[in-house]
Write a structure and sequence with these properties.
The chain starts with a strand and ends with a strand. Helices cover 0% and strands 53% of the residues. It is built from no helices and 11 strands.
């Protein structure tokens, strides 16, 4: 069983920055593709960015150039650095661990990010 726990959300002004963290425990971290998703009120959950165990990254067009995903395999942790935040980035951000062995997904409980003046 894998546990995924996010942290780092909060309230920030437009143009500001936040860094989200996601710690995974309970299994071999290296077999997981780690991803950040978000869900705004009334909208579907959408992929923000993901990163393979080898460090290959993938970003949604709406965050390219503003957000950076990274991972520290020694700490079983993935990060999402968010710069130049916009009000439309307001959402609950979820971390997902996708097993490349079983194809099973493990989700965190989510962390709220609010961008407002």
């Amino acid at each position: 069983q894998v546990q995924v726990v996010e942290s780092g959300g909060g309230l920030v002004q437009p143009g500001g920055s936040l860094t989200l963290s996601c710690a995974a425990s309970g299994s071999i971290f290296g077999i997981y593709v780690m991803g950040w998703f978000r869900q705004a009120p009334g909208k579907q959950r959408e992929l923000v960015a993901d990163i393979s165990s080898g460090g290959s990254t993938n970003y949604a067009d709406f965050v390219k150039g503003r957000f950076t995903i990274s991972r520290d395999n020694a700490k079983n942790t993935v990060y999402l650095r968010m710069n130049n935040l916009k009000p439309e980035d307001t959402a609950v951000y979820y971390c997902r661990a996708h097993s490349t062995v079983t194809s099973y997904d493990y989700w965190g409980q989510g962390t709220q990010v609010t961008v407002s003046s």
